[in-house]
Amino acid sequence: MYIYPDNLKSQAVLWLWQLRDIGVIGVGCLISVFALAQLGILLPIVATALYAFLTIRFEDTSILDFIKYACAFFITRQQFYEWRLQSADHWELDRKQVNK
């Protein structure tokens, strides 16, 4: 019996991560264990755990994507607002503009 996904063009996902992220996390864990055993440093395991946390996916959006979108909205991209004052007789009650 074969089970096909709803969207055949979507990325392959295993548990909460894409398969590429599972591979990176696995290699990171191996390097982290060797670094901890041989050198006694915790930095690689902390970096791997942080990467694993940031790449958790919910409905095709990861936590890292959400942080990128938030930084772009609040910090890096300029927001553009255009303000105009129009008289009240140009608007009907349902807020559609009327050209008189």
Overall tally of domains: 1
Distance, first to last CA: 67 Å
Structural class designation: mainly alpha
Helix share bin: 40-55%
Sheet with the most strands, sense and barrel status = 2 strands, antiparallel
Number of helices: 3
Number of strands: 4
Radius of gyration: 25 Å
Coarse shape: elongated
List segments where confidence is low: pLDDT < 50 over at least 5 consecutive residues.
Answer: none
Transmembrane segments: 22-54
Keywords: Membrane, Transmembrane, Transmembrane helix
Per-chain topology:
Layout: E1 13-14, E2 17-18, H1 19-38, H2 43-54, E3 57-58, E4 61-62, H3 63-76
Helix pairs in contact: 1-2
Task: Report what the structure shows.
With 100 residues, the protein is mainly alpha-helical. The chain has one domain (13-90). It is 46% helix and 8% strand. The chain has helices at residues 19-38, 43-54, 63-76; strands spanning 13-14, 17-18, 57-58, 61-62. The strands form 2 sheets. A two-stranded antiparallel ribbon has the order 1-2. The chain has a two-stranded antiparallel ribbon with strand order 3-4. A hairpin with a 2-residue loop joins strand 1 (13-14) and strand 2. The chain is elongated and about 75 Å long.
Summed up:
With 100 residues, the chain is mainly α. It has three helices and four strands, in the order E-E-H-H-E-E-H.
Main traits of this protein?
single chain, 100 residues, mainly alpha, two-stranded antiparallel sheet, two-stranded antiparallel ribbon, transmembrane helix
